[in-house]
Amino acid sequence: MIGNFLGVLFDGIAYGSLLFLIGIGLSVTMGLMNFVNLAHGAFAAMGGYVCVTAMNQLGVPFLATLPVAFIATALMGVVLERTLYQRLYKATPLDQVLFSIGLTFMAVAGMTYVWGPTQQPVRLPEFLTGQVHLLGLDLGVYRLFLIVIVVFVTAALVYLVDRTRFGAQVRASVDNQQASAGLGINVNRVFALTFALGSGLAGLGGGLGIDVLGLDPSFPFKYMVYFLLVVAVGGAGSIKGTLVAALVLGIFDVAGKYYAPQIGAFVIYALMVVLLVLFPAGLYGKKA
Amino acid sequence: MKQIRSLLLGVVAVGFAALVHAAEPIKVGLLTPYSGPFADMGRLIDAGVKAYVKAHGDTVAGRKIEVITRDTTGPAPEVGKRLAQELVVRDQVDFLMVGGFTPETLTAGTVASAAKKPLLVVNASSSNITDKIPYGVRYSFSFRQITQPLGAWAAKNGIRRMMTLVSDYGPGIDCENAFKDGFTSNGGTIVESVRTPLKSPEFGPFIQKVKDAKPEALFVWVPSGDQALNVVKTYYERGLDKAGIRLVILGDDIDEPVFNALGDKVKGLVTSLHYSTAHPTAENKKFLKAFAEVTGNAIQPTFMSVAAYDGMAAIYEAVKRQNGDLADGAKTLDILANLQFESPRGKIVIDPKTRDVVQAVYIRRVEPHNGRLENVEFETIPDVKP
After folding, report:
1. Distance, CA of A185 to CA of A172 (rounded, Å)
2. Does one domain contain both B21 and B121?
3. Which tens digit of pLDDT belongs to each residue from A62-77?
4. Model ipTM?
5. Checking CA distances to B155, which of A88, A179, A257, B66 falls within 20 to 30 Å?
C-alpha cells in the first residue's frame, strides 16, 4: 500500500516535471513580458519536430537533439518576436490572444503539411528506457531523467533571473520600460532575448515530452489547457510558483487517475478551481 | 467584333454543355476528415478509394466514375449533414461514402435516406448503425464483431483472470462489453474494468493499477494513434510484460506508428482484426500494389483503406449490374445490400436484413514478415456477425 503511494508520488512528480518544463516558457513570456502567448504549444511542438527530424533523418543521438531543439526554437522565437510579436506588446490582451491563436492554427496546418498528420516515432536510447529498482520501488528511468533535468533547469533559471545582470535588466524593463530605457538598457534587445528564452524552453520541453505526450500537429491544442493551468495556478512570471503548481497538479492528476479512475481526469480541474479561489493571483503571483 | 465574340463563346458553351451531358459521370461523394487531428484517417480512406480506381479503371458500363471529396474535419455531425446536403442537392451525387465517425455518419445518413441515395459506411464502427440509416450499407466492421472473438480466444487459450482497460466513451464501452462477453462465456473472469478518459495524455497511473492488481492478462482498446502508442509504450515501460501480465489488444491499435516507435519489443503481441497487410491472397496483393502506386509508398494501408476500397468495389458492381442506369435508388440499395465478394481482407458478405457486413475475424501475432514487422494471422473465425 505504502509502496503504491510512493510509486504514485514519484510518477506524479515526474509528470509534474514535464508540465513544468513546457509551462515555464509560457510563464516567462506571460509573466515577465505580459504577453498572452497562446502559440506557446506550437513552439513546444516545433521543438519536438526538430528533435524527431534530427534523430530520424540525420541520425543525431537523442540527448544531442535536445540542445538543438532549444536553440532552433529560440531562434524561431527571436525572428517571430522581431517581425510579429513586438507589434502587439501594447495591444489589449484580447488582440494578443487572437493573434497568437491564429498563429497556432497556421503552425498546426504548416506542421501537417511538412510532417503529415501522423504520430512521430521517437526511440529513446536504451539507457533511458525501462525501470530501475530503487528502495523497493520500480522507477521509470526516463521519468528520473525528467526530474533531474527539471532540477537543473530550475536552478539555472532562478540564477539567471535573480542573480545576473540580464535578469535584473529583464525585471527592470518589465516594471518600467521608459525608466529602464532611460538608464541605458536596450529594452528591445532584452525583450527579444526573453522571448527567445521562453520559446527555447518550450522547444526543450516539447522534445523531452514526445515520449510521454506523443507528437502530432494537434499537440499545441491538445495540451494548451495544461500549460495555461500550470501558469494560472502558479502565478505568471514566478519560477517557484510554476514549479510548485506543476508538481501539485502532476501529483494530484496521477493520484486521481490511480485511486479513482472514474473521476480521475476531473481531479486536476477541481483542484484548479479550489486553488484559484484561494489564490486568485496564483500561488506565488504578484498582487494585482 | 464584340457580337461575333459573344456568338462564338455561345457556340462553344453550347457545344461544351452537350459534351458534358454525353459523358455525364457517376458521382460519388466522399466524406472523410482531411484536416484536423484525424487527418490521417482521411488520408488512408482517400488512398483506398484511389487505389480501387487505379486498379480497376475509372469507367464502368461506359460511364466515368467521379469522386467528389469533402472534409468533415473530425467527429462533427453538423458538418457531416451540411456536406451531405451540398453533395446531394448541388453536386447531385449518385452515392455517398462516409469514412468518418459515427456522429457524422448518422447525420449524413438522414440526408441520404431522405434523398433516396445509397450511403456506404466505410469506417464508423458502432453497433447497429445501419438500423438508423435506411439507405445505409456498412462495408467496414463493428467493434463488437472484432472484440468478442478475441475474448473467446483468450479464454480458450488458458487465460483465466483478466482486466480490461478501455477509453471511456461509446466504442470503448462496446469493446469492454463485447470482450467480457466472449471471455466470460468461455469460462474466464474479469477481475476489474478500468476506463480511461477520452482525453488522457498519461496512462502511467492506469497501467500501474493493472500491474499492482496482477491479473494474468490485460485487454486494451483505446483510439488508435497517439493514445494507442502511449498505452502500449507504458505497458512495456512499466515492465508488465516482465511481470507476466500478457497484453491482448485490438488490432487497430497495433500498426505502423507502434512498430516504428517500439520495434522488436512488440514481437509476439496477439491482436484481433478483420484485415492485415500480411493477408496471403492475390486480392490483397493487388490492393497493396495499387495502394503503393497511388501513395508513392509514403504510407502503409490499414483496414480503413480496405473498407474504402471495398466500398468502391460495391459501387462498381452496382453500376455494372444496372448497365450504368442508376435512376432507381431503391434498386441500387438492394444490389448493394445483397453483395458478396472477395475483398483484400477475405470474403465479405452483406446481410440483406441488416445491410451490415459479415466477415472473418483473424487472431494475429506480431512477427517479422516481408522484411518488417507485420500482424500475421494464425487463427480464423469465419462468418462473424457484426
Report:
1. 9
2. yes
3. 999 999 999 999 999 9
4. 0.74
5. A257
